[in-house]
Amino acid sequence: MTPNDYEFLRKLLKDRSGLMLSADKQYLVESRLLPVARKAGLSTLTELAQKLRAPNAEKLIVDVVEAMTTNESFFFRDKLPFEHFQNFIMPALLATRANQKRIRIWCAAASTGQEPYSLAMVLKEMSRQTEGFRIEIIATDLSTEVLEKAKAGIYSQFEVQRGLPVQLLIKNFSQVGEMWQIAPDLRAMVQYRPLNLLRDFSSLGMMDVIFCRNVLIYFDQATKIDVINRMSRLMAPDGFLTLGAAETVVGLTDSFKAVTGRRGIYSPNSAASGPAGGVLKFTHPPIAAGMR
Amino acid sequence: MKTCLVVDDSSVIRKVARRILEGFDFQIMEAEDGEQALESCQKLLPDAILLDWNMPKMDGYDFLKALRRLPGGDRPKVVFCTTENDVAHIARALHAGANEYIMKPFDKDIVEAKFQEVGLI
Known about the structure:
A: Chemotaxis Receptor Methyltransferase Cher, domain 1, 40% helix, B: alpha/beta, Rossmann fold, 5 strands, globular
Protein backbone atom coordinates (compact mmCIF):
# COMPACT_ATOMS: atom_id res chain seq x y z
CA MET A 1 0.00 0.00 0.00
CA THR A 2 1.45 3.37 -0.97
CA PRO A 3 1.40 6.38 1.39
CA ASN A 4 -1.11 7.90 -1.02
CA ASP A 5 -3.43 4.91 -0.72
CA TYR A 6 -3.19 5.02 3.08
CA GLU A 7 -4.04 8.74 3.10
CA PHE A 8 -6.99 8.07 0.82
CA LEU A 9 -8.29 5.30 3.12
CA ARG A 10 -7.78 7.43 6.24
CA LYS A 11 -9.80 10.27 4.72
CA LEU A 12 -12.53 7.93 3.48
CA LEU A 13 -12.92 6.37 6.93
CA LYS A 14 -12.89 9.76 8.66
CA ASP A 15 -15.58 11.12 6.32
CA ARG A 16 -17.81 8.05 6.44
CA SER A 17 -17.53 6.90 10.03
CA GLY A 18 -15.59 9.49 11.99
CA LEU A 19 -12.88 6.90 12.58
CA MET A 20 -9.54 8.62 13.13
CA LEU A 21 -6.50 6.60 12.16
CA SER A 22 -3.09 7.88 13.14
CA ALA A 23 -0.21 7.58 10.69
CA ASP A 24 1.12 4.48 12.47
CA LYS A 25 -2.03 2.38 12.02
CA GLN A 26 -1.15 1.04 8.59
CA TYR A 27 -0.81 -2.50 9.99
CA LEU A 28 -4.40 -2.33 11.30
CA VAL A 29 -5.71 -1.23 7.92
CA GLU A 30 -3.79 -4.01 6.20
CA SER A 31 -4.99 -6.73 8.56
CA ARG A 32 -8.62 -5.64 8.39
CA LEU A 33 -8.90 -4.70 4.72
CA LEU A 34 -6.93 -7.45 2.99
CA PRO A 35 -9.81 -9.92 3.58
CA VAL A 36 -12.22 -7.30 2.13
CA ALA A 37 -9.96 -6.90 -0.91
CA ARG A 38 -9.76 -10.67 -1.45
CA LYS A 39 -13.51 -11.03 -1.11
CA ALA A 40 -13.86 -8.45 -3.87
CA GLY A 41 -11.46 -10.41 -6.08
CA LEU A 42 -8.56 -8.00 -5.58
CA SER A 43 -5.11 -9.04 -4.47
CA THR A 44 -3.64 -5.85 -2.97
CA LEU A 45 -4.77 -2.83 -0.99
CA THR A 46 -3.58 -0.59 -3.80
CA GLU A 47 -6.09 -2.30 -6.09
CA LEU A 48 -8.72 -1.89 -3.37
CA ALA A 49 -7.98 1.84 -3.07
CA GLN A 50 -8.27 2.20 -6.86
CA LYS A 51 -11.62 0.45 -6.88
CA LEU A 52 -12.86 2.61 -4.00
CA ARG A 53 -11.98 5.78 -5.95
CA ALA A 54 -14.03 4.65 -8.92
CA PRO A 55 -17.72 5.54 -9.37
CA ASN A 56 -20.32 3.05 -8.07
CA ALA A 57 -18.07 1.90 -5.23
CA GLU A 58 -20.71 2.43 -2.55
CA LYS A 59 -21.12 -1.26 -1.65
CA LEU A 60 -17.35 -1.72 -1.36
CA ILE A 61 -17.08 1.46 0.74
CA VAL A 62 -19.66 0.06 3.15
CA ASP A 63 -17.67 -3.20 3.39
CA VAL A 64 -14.48 -1.24 4.14
CA VAL A 65 -16.13 0.95 6.78
CA GLU A 66 -17.71 -2.09 8.44
CA ALA A 67 -14.43 -4.01 8.48
CA MET A 68 -12.63 -1.10 10.10
CA THR A 69 -15.28 -0.17 12.64
CA THR A 70 -16.34 -3.59 13.83
CA ASN A 71 -14.89 -4.00 17.27
CA GLU A 72 -14.71 -6.86 19.63
CA SER A 73 -17.34 -6.81 22.31
CA PHE A 74 -18.16 -9.00 25.25
CA PHE A 75 -20.85 -9.37 27.85
CA PHE A 76 -20.68 -7.07 30.90
CA ARG A 77 -17.54 -5.47 29.50
CA ASP A 78 -15.65 -3.65 32.29
CA LYS A 79 -18.34 -4.77 34.78
CA LEU A 80 -18.47 -1.42 36.65
CA PRO A 81 -20.82 0.39 34.21
CA PHE A 82 -23.36 -2.42 34.66
CA GLU A 83 -23.06 -2.25 38.44
CA HIS A 84 -23.67 1.51 38.21
CA PHE A 85 -26.63 0.84 35.91
CA GLN A 86 -28.19 -1.63 38.36
CA ASN A 87 -27.34 0.06 41.64
CA PHE A 88 -27.43 3.76 40.79
CA ILE A 89 -28.96 4.67 37.44
CA MET A 90 -32.00 2.39 37.52
CA PRO A 91 -32.97 3.08 41.15
CA ALA A 92 -32.76 6.83 40.44
CA LEU A 93 -34.91 6.54 37.31
CA LEU A 94 -37.44 4.19 38.89
CA ALA A 95 -37.98 6.83 41.56
CA THR A 96 -38.20 9.82 39.22
CA ARG A 97 -40.33 7.97 36.63
CA ALA A 98 -42.74 6.51 39.18
CA ASN A 99 -45.69 8.25 37.51
CA GLN A 100 -44.96 7.99 33.81
CA LYS A 101 -43.50 4.47 34.20
CA ARG A 102 -41.42 4.68 31.09
CA ILE A 103 -37.66 4.48 30.63
CA ARG A 104 -35.75 4.67 27.35
CA ILE A 105 -32.20 3.39 27.01
CA TRP A 106 -29.93 3.87 23.99
CA CYS A 107 -26.87 1.72 23.30
CA ALA A 108 -25.15 3.93 20.74
CA ALA A 109 -22.55 1.41 19.55
CA ALA A 110 -24.22 -1.91 20.12
CA SER A 111 -21.86 -3.93 17.92
CA THR A 112 -22.82 -7.62 18.06
CA GLY A 113 -25.32 -7.11 20.87
CA GLN A 114 -23.40 -8.03 24.01
CA GLU A 115 -23.91 -4.62 25.63
CA PRO A 116 -27.69 -4.27 25.07
CA TYR A 117 -28.23 -7.89 26.08
CA SER A 118 -26.15 -7.34 29.23
CA LEU A 119 -28.45 -4.43 30.08
CA ALA A 120 -31.48 -6.60 29.30
CA MET A 121 -30.16 -9.29 31.67
CA VAL A 122 -29.69 -6.69 34.42
CA LEU A 123 -33.26 -5.49 33.87
CA LYS A 124 -34.56 -9.05 33.97
CA GLU A 125 -32.82 -9.51 37.33
CA MET A 126 -34.60 -6.32 38.46
CA SER A 127 -38.00 -7.42 37.19
CA ARG A 128 -39.68 -7.03 40.58
CA GLN A 129 -38.62 -3.40 40.87
CA THR A 130 -39.45 -2.61 37.24
CA GLU A 131 -42.88 -4.22 37.24
CA GLY A 132 -45.40 -2.00 35.46
CA PHE A 133 -42.69 0.00 33.69
CA ARG A 134 -42.29 0.12 29.94
CA ILE A 135 -38.54 -0.06 29.34
CA GLU A 136 -37.12 0.23 25.86
CA ILE A 137 -33.58 -0.59 24.83
CA ILE A 138 -32.72 0.92 21.46
CA ALA A 139 -29.46 -0.49 20.14
CA THR A 140 -27.75 1.12 17.17
CA ASP A 141 -24.58 0.57 15.22
CA LEU A 142 -23.03 1.79 12.01
CA SER A 143 -22.59 -1.74 10.71
CA THR A 144 -25.64 -3.57 9.44
CA GLU A 145 -23.62 -6.79 9.42
CA VAL A 146 -22.98 -6.73 13.17
CA LEU A 147 -26.60 -5.76 13.80
CA GLU A 148 -27.73 -8.91 12.00
CA LYS A 149 -25.59 -10.97 14.34
CA ALA A 150 -26.90 -8.99 17.30
CA LYS A 151 -30.51 -9.61 16.30
CA ALA A 152 -29.91 -13.35 15.98
CA GLY A 153 -28.32 -13.32 19.44
CA ILE A 154 -26.20 -16.38 18.69
CA TYR A 155 -22.72 -16.51 20.19
CA SER A 156 -19.78 -18.89 20.19
CA GLN A 157 -18.56 -20.72 23.26
CA PHE A 158 -15.65 -18.27 23.46
CA GLU A 159 -17.97 -15.26 23.33
CA VAL A 160 -20.27 -16.45 26.11
CA GLN A 161 -17.34 -17.19 28.40
CA ARG A 162 -15.86 -13.70 28.39
CA GLY A 163 -17.58 -11.56 30.98
CA LEU A 164 -20.75 -13.60 31.35
CA PRO A 165 -21.12 -15.36 34.72
CA VAL A 166 -22.02 -19.02 34.21
CA GLN A 167 -25.24 -18.65 36.23
CA LEU A 168 -26.48 -16.03 33.76
CA LEU A 169 -25.39 -18.24 30.86
CA ILE A 170 -27.52 -21.20 31.86
CA LYS A 171 -30.40 -18.97 32.91
CA ASN A 172 -30.57 -16.85 29.77
CA PHE A 173 -29.15 -18.90 26.90
CA SER A 174 -29.98 -22.13 25.15
CA GLN A 175 -27.59 -24.32 23.23
CA VAL A 176 -27.91 -24.43 19.46
CA GLY A 177 -25.36 -27.00 18.35
CA GLU A 178 -22.03 -25.65 19.49
CA MET A 179 -23.40 -22.12 19.78
CA TRP A 180 -25.45 -20.38 22.45
CA GLN A 181 -28.55 -18.30 21.72
CA ILE A 182 -29.92 -15.66 24.04
CA ALA A 183 -33.47 -16.26 25.27
CA PRO A 184 -36.38 -14.89 23.19
CA ASP A 185 -37.66 -12.68 26.05
CA LEU A 186 -34.28 -10.90 26.21
CA ARG A 187 -34.07 -10.57 22.43
CA ALA A 188 -37.54 -9.03 22.45
CA MET A 189 -36.37 -6.37 24.90
CA VAL A 190 -33.93 -4.86 22.38
CA GLN A 191 -34.78 -2.93 19.20
CA TYR A 192 -31.91 -2.77 16.71
CA ARG A 193 -31.45 0.01 14.18
CA PRO A 194 -28.57 0.98 11.88
CA LEU A 195 -27.28 4.45 12.72
CA ASN A 196 -24.25 6.55 11.92
CA LEU A 197 -23.36 8.81 14.86
CA LEU A 198 -21.98 11.39 12.44
CA ARG A 199 -25.46 11.94 11.06
CA ASP A 200 -28.56 13.41 12.68
CA PHE A 201 -29.97 11.03 15.28
CA SER A 202 -32.60 13.31 16.78
CA SER A 203 -35.40 11.09 15.41
CA LEU A 204 -34.52 8.51 18.09
CA GLY A 205 -36.43 10.67 20.54
CA MET A 206 -35.72 11.45 24.17
CA MET A 207 -33.50 9.12 26.15
CA ASP A 208 -33.14 8.53 29.87
CA VAL A 209 -29.91 6.55 29.58
CA ILE A 210 -27.26 6.56 26.86
CA PHE A 211 -24.48 3.97 26.77
CA CYS A 212 -21.84 5.27 24.37
CA ARG A 213 -18.78 3.28 25.25
CA ASN A 214 -15.50 2.85 23.41
CA VAL A 215 -16.62 4.80 20.36
CA LEU A 216 -15.55 8.37 21.05
CA ILE A 217 -11.92 7.25 21.35
CA TYR A 218 -11.89 6.73 17.58
CA PHE A 219 -13.13 10.26 16.81
CA ASP A 220 -11.20 13.50 16.57
CA GLN A 221 -11.90 16.23 19.12
CA ALA A 222 -14.39 18.19 17.02
CA THR A 223 -16.40 15.04 16.23
CA LYS A 224 -16.42 13.97 19.89
CA ILE A 225 -17.75 17.38 20.94
CA ASP A 226 -20.38 17.36 18.21
CA VAL A 227 -21.63 13.85 19.07
CA ILE A 228 -21.72 14.51 22.82
CA ASN A 229 -23.54 17.81 22.39
CA ARG A 230 -26.13 16.26 20.09
CA MET A 231 -26.61 13.47 22.63
CA SER A 232 -27.19 16.06 25.34
CA ARG A 233 -30.10 17.41 23.32
CA LEU A 234 -31.79 13.99 23.36
CA MET A 235 -31.14 13.41 27.02
CA ALA A 236 -33.75 13.86 29.72
CA PRO A 237 -32.58 16.52 32.20
CA ASP A 238 -32.23 13.86 34.87
CA GLY A 239 -30.85 11.16 32.58
CA PHE A 240 -27.43 9.54 32.51
CA LEU A 241 -24.68 9.11 29.95
CA THR A 242 -22.21 6.24 30.33
CA LEU A 243 -18.88 6.44 28.53
CA GLY A 244 -16.02 3.95 28.20
CA ALA A 245 -13.21 3.73 30.73
CA ALA A 246 -10.83 5.65 28.49
CA GLU A 247 -13.35 8.35 27.57
CA THR A 248 -14.56 11.54 29.22
CA VAL A 249 -16.46 14.73 28.49
CA VAL A 250 -14.16 16.71 30.77
CA GLY A 251 -12.29 19.32 28.78
CA LEU A 252 -14.47 18.76 25.72
CA THR A 253 -17.87 20.23 26.49
CA ASP A 254 -19.92 21.48 29.40
CA SER A 255 -23.09 19.80 28.16
CA PHE A 256 -22.56 16.97 30.66
CA LYS A 257 -20.93 16.83 34.07
CA ALA A 258 -19.34 13.87 35.82
CA VAL A 259 -21.43 12.20 38.52
CA THR A 260 -19.42 12.28 41.72
CA GLY A 261 -18.23 8.88 42.88
CA ARG A 262 -19.56 7.10 39.77
CA ARG A 263 -16.69 6.76 37.35
CA GLY A 264 -17.76 6.89 33.72
CA ILE A 265 -21.25 8.26 34.46
CA TYR A 266 -22.30 11.77 33.39
CA SER A 267 -25.47 13.77 33.82
CA PRO A 268 -26.73 16.66 31.71
CA ASN A 269 -25.41 19.98 32.87
CA SER A 270 -28.48 22.15 33.16
CA ALA A 271 -26.26 25.23 33.50
CA ALA A 272 -24.80 24.71 30.03
CA SER A 273 -26.24 26.77 27.22
CA GLY A 274 -25.49 28.03 23.75
CA PRO A 275 -25.01 26.07 20.57
CA ALA A 276 -21.85 24.31 21.77
CA GLY A 277 -23.31 23.34 25.11
CA GLY A 278 -25.98 20.95 26.20
CA VAL A 279 -29.06 22.82 25.17
CA LEU A 280 -31.96 21.04 26.75
CA LYS A 281 -34.55 21.79 24.14
CA PHE A 282 -37.17 19.29 25.25
CA THR A 283 -39.12 18.79 28.36
CA HIS A 284 -39.67 15.20 29.32
CA PRO A 285 -41.46 13.24 27.99
CA PRO A 286 -42.17 14.32 24.42
CA ILE A 287 -42.81 11.47 22.02
CA ALA A 288 -40.38 12.38 19.29
CA ALA A 289 -40.91 11.66 15.64
CA GLY A 290 -39.44 8.40 14.51
CA MET A 291 -40.12 6.49 17.67
CA ARG A 292 -41.78 3.14 17.37
CA MET B 1 0.57 -15.13 46.95
CA LYS B 2 -2.64 -17.07 46.24
CA THR B 3 -2.50 -20.80 45.61
CA CYS B 4 -4.26 -22.76 42.89
CA LEU B 5 -4.55 -26.52 42.55
CA VAL B 6 -4.77 -27.55 38.90
CA VAL B 7 -6.51 -30.91 38.58
CA ASP B 8 -6.38 -32.54 35.15
CA ASP B 9 -5.20 -35.89 33.83
CA SER B 10 -3.62 -34.19 30.83
CA SER B 11 -0.11 -32.96 31.51
CA VAL B 12 -0.43 -30.56 28.56
CA ILE B 13 -3.52 -28.91 30.05
CA ARG B 14 -1.80 -28.68 33.44
CA LYS B 15 1.20 -27.03 31.83
CA VAL B 16 -0.95 -24.53 29.88
CA ALA B 17 -3.02 -23.72 32.99
CA ARG B 18 0.13 -23.34 35.09
CA ARG B 19 1.60 -20.88 32.60
CA ILE B 20 -1.59 -18.81 32.49
CA LEU B 21 -2.17 -18.76 36.26
CA GLU B 22 1.46 -18.06 37.16
CA GLY B 23 1.01 -14.98 34.97
CA PHE B 24 -1.64 -13.88 37.49
CA ASP B 25 0.75 -14.51 40.40
CA PHE B 26 -0.72 -17.80 41.56
CA GLN B 27 1.44 -20.44 43.22
CA ILE B 28 0.49 -23.64 41.41
CA MET B 29 0.06 -27.18 42.71
CA GLU B 30 -0.92 -30.06 40.44
CA ALA B 31 -2.96 -33.25 40.69
CA GLU B 32 -3.67 -35.87 38.01
CA ASP B 33 -7.08 -36.99 39.27
CA GLY B 34 -9.68 -36.47 41.97
CA GLU B 35 -8.01 -38.82 44.45
CA GLN B 36 -4.68 -36.99 44.30
CA ALA B 37 -6.51 -33.69 44.52
CA LEU B 38 -8.41 -34.77 47.61
CA GLU B 39 -5.19 -35.96 49.32
CA SER B 40 -3.63 -32.59 48.51
CA CYS B 41 -6.63 -30.68 49.92
CA GLN B 42 -6.62 -32.76 53.12
CA LYS B 43 -3.09 -31.45 53.77
CA LEU B 44 -3.54 -27.89 52.55
CA LEU B 45 -6.58 -26.14 51.13
CA PRO B 46 -5.72 -23.90 48.17
CA ASP B 47 -7.45 -20.59 47.40
CA ALA B 48 -8.56 -21.84 44.00
CA ILE B 49 -9.05 -25.13 42.18
CA LEU B 50 -9.14 -25.45 38.39
CA LEU B 51 -10.91 -28.75 37.92
CA ASP B 52 -11.35 -31.16 35.02
CA TRP B 53 -14.45 -33.37 34.96
CA ASN B 54 -13.44 -36.67 33.37
CA MET B 55 -10.44 -38.21 35.10
CA PRO B 56 -9.44 -41.75 36.14
CA LYS B 57 -9.92 -42.96 39.74
CA MET B 58 -12.12 -40.08 40.94
CA ASP B 59 -13.77 -37.60 38.55
CA GLY B 60 -14.08 -33.87 39.13
CA TYR B 61 -17.71 -34.02 40.17
CA ASP B 62 -17.13 -36.61 42.94
CA PHE B 63 -14.01 -34.74 44.05
CA LEU B 64 -15.99 -31.50 44.37
CA LYS B 65 -18.66 -33.14 46.52
CA ALA B 66 -15.95 -34.68 48.76
CA LEU B 67 -14.08 -31.37 48.95
CA ARG B 68 -17.15 -29.45 50.11
CA ARG B 69 -17.56 -31.95 52.98
CA LEU B 70 -14.00 -31.36 54.28
CA PRO B 71 -13.54 -28.97 57.22
CA GLY B 72 -13.05 -25.58 55.54
CA GLY B 73 -13.80 -27.24 52.21
CA ASP B 74 -16.32 -24.56 51.33
CA ARG B 75 -13.52 -21.97 51.13
CA PRO B 76 -11.66 -22.78 47.89
CA LYS B 77 -13.18 -21.25 44.77
CA VAL B 78 -13.70 -24.07 42.30
CA VAL B 79 -13.68 -23.39 38.58
CA PHE B 80 -14.54 -26.38 36.44
CA CYS B 81 -12.54 -26.63 33.23
CA THR B 82 -13.93 -29.38 31.04
CA THR B 83 -15.09 -30.57 27.65
CA GLU B 84 -18.50 -31.34 29.18
CA ASN B 85 -20.02 -28.30 27.49
CA ASP B 86 -23.74 -28.70 27.99
CA VAL B 87 -26.30 -27.09 30.26
CA ALA B 88 -26.99 -30.30 32.22
CA HIS B 89 -23.35 -30.70 33.26
CA ILE B 90 -23.03 -27.00 34.11
CA ALA B 91 -26.16 -27.15 36.27
CA ARG B 92 -24.89 -30.29 38.07
CA ALA B 93 -21.52 -28.64 38.72
CA LEU B 94 -23.12 -25.51 40.17
CA HIS B 95 -25.43 -27.60 42.30
CA ALA B 96 -22.44 -29.51 43.69
CA GLY B 97 -20.78 -26.25 44.69
CA ALA B 98 -18.72 -25.09 41.70
CA ASN B 99 -18.22 -21.32 41.56
CA GLU B 100 -17.56 -20.97 37.84
CA TYR B 101 -17.31 -23.08 34.72
CA ILE B 102 -14.89 -23.01 31.80
CA MET B 103 -15.75 -24.91 28.66
CA LYS B 104 -12.69 -26.23 26.85
CA PRO B 105 -10.98 -25.12 24.72
CA PHE B 106 -10.00 -22.11 26.78
CA ASP B 107 -7.51 -19.29 26.55
CA LYS B 108 -5.91 -16.78 28.90
CA ASP B 109 -8.76 -14.25 28.50
CA ILE B 110 -11.38 -16.79 29.54
CA VAL B 111 -9.40 -17.94 32.58
CA GLU B 112 -8.86 -14.32 33.57
CA ALA B 113 -12.56 -13.46 33.12
CA LYS B 114 -13.73 -16.46 35.17
CA PHE B 115 -11.20 -15.97 37.96
CA GLN B 116 -12.16 -12.29 38.10
CA GLU B 117 -15.81 -13.28 38.27
CA VAL B 118 -15.25 -15.20 41.50
CA GLY B 119 -12.92 -12.58 42.98
CA LEU B 120 -9.68 -14.51 42.60
CA ILE B 121 -7.98 -11.85 40.45
